[in-house]
Amino acid sequence: MDNKGFEVKLNGKLLTKAGLQNNHGVLSCILDATFRKTDKKQELWLNVSGLNSDTNQYTKWIISEELEEDDIVSIKIINGPFDKPSKLVERKAKERTLKEKLKVYHQLKEELKDHLEE
C-alpha cells in the first residue's frame, strides 16, 4: 500500500511534504482561527503534525505558521518521499498519562465538591 501524505503550500511556496513512512499513525493539517473576546484579537495559524504509532512519537512539520488575510493555503494529497519532521516528541507512557489524569480528577473533585451529589 502506498503511503499518502500532504504537500502543503502557502501562497504558492512549498512549506512541506508531510507523511509517515509506515502505515500506522495519524497525519493532520489544521487551520486555526482564534477570535478573542477580551482583547478583540484575531489569530490565524497553520499546523501540520501527526502521530507515528510504530515509534510512539508525535511528529511536527509545521508548528504555528501564522497566516494573514488573503493568504492561500493549498494541500495536495501525495505519495512519498516525505520531508523529515522538524520536531519529534515522545508520547507519554500510559501510566504517566493516567497519573496526570488522576491528579486533575482529584483537583477538580475538591474544587467542585459543593456542586457534586453524593
Question: Could you explain the architecture of this structure?
Answer:
By secondary structure, the chain is an alpha+beta fold. It has one domain. Helices cover 15% and strands 47% of the residues. The chain has one helix at 94-111; strands at residues 4-10, 13-18, 25-35, 42-52, 57-66, 73-79, 87-90. The strands form two sheets. It has a four-stranded antiparallel beta sheet with strand order 3-4-5-7, with no helix packed on it. A three-stranded antiparallel beta sheet has the order 2-1-6, with no helix packed on it. A hairpin with a 6-residue loop joins strand 3 (25-35) and strand 4 (42-52). The longest helix is centred in the last third of the chain and has 18 residues, at 94-111.
Total separate domains = 1
- Anisotropy-based shape: flat
Beta percentage is: over 45%
Q: Report mean pLDDT, rounded to a whole number.
A: 88
Numbering strands along the chain, what is their spatial order in the largest sheet?
A: 3-4-5-7
Low-confidence stretches: none
What is the terminal-to-terminal distance?
53 Å
Q: How many helical stretches?
A: 1
Largest sheet: 4 strands, antiparallel
Rg computed from alpha carbons, rounded to a whole number of angstroms: 19 Å
**Number of beta-strand segments:** 7
Query: Helix/strand/pairing class, anyone?
Result: alpha+beta
Order of helices and strands: EEEEEEEH
Helix content: 10-25%
